[in-house]
Amino acid sequence: MTTSPVALAVDLGSSTASVWATGRGVVSAPTGVGALIRRGRVTDVDGCVALLTQLVNRFPQPAPVADVVVACRPVLSTEADQELMRRVIDGAFAPRRTLLIDTVRAAAIGSGATAGNLLVVDIGAQLTETALLEHGRVIAAQRADYGIRDLGREGATGLLTDIVAQHVANLRATGHAAALAEATVRGILLTGDGALHPGLPEALATALDVRVHRAADPRTAALDGAGRAAMSALRHPGFA
Asked: Which InterPro entries match (predicted)?
């Protein structure tokens, strides 16, 4: 009996871990902010493996060995960060193939917004990522170790806004001014928990004098995009 190829997508965030599998849907669980993933970096490989293993066991239909796993990674991740993520994916799923994708790129794919120049801002629990994409490819990016879970004091919304504004200013100085100008006319695609924080999208729009568009589902946009990328990898002629 021949079984259909299985693709998995993983978004292992500082507050929530989510797994999507072909024909099985999505399962999620909290990671305990900072306990397993801190500021976008794996801090407990074994703990992450155990959590992901438990998650896939919650699917109504058991997921067999994955043919391909596409996992989200924060933009500008170091080689060491990526190696830890690969160890987690290999330990949890032992897939035939593992691919890592920048969270901002995955969010653009999941939002159906890969054409042309695009400015994506992903504000997560402990990390803020700002990236300039050209036809779905990251050409310049910035990140800061500050996120929505840090908004515990007065003026914190303004601090997040200032961080994104500084990111945009830094991107303008990277030699991609024309692409950035085109992207800002189009507006910012805002994803992550920050997109749902009261007042933050409006504060960003005012500070940067641009339109801010929330992703249709900001919390799952990156996972949706990683899932689409995983299915695309399965269909690629070179996969077999």
From this structure: ATPase_NBD, MreB_MamK-like
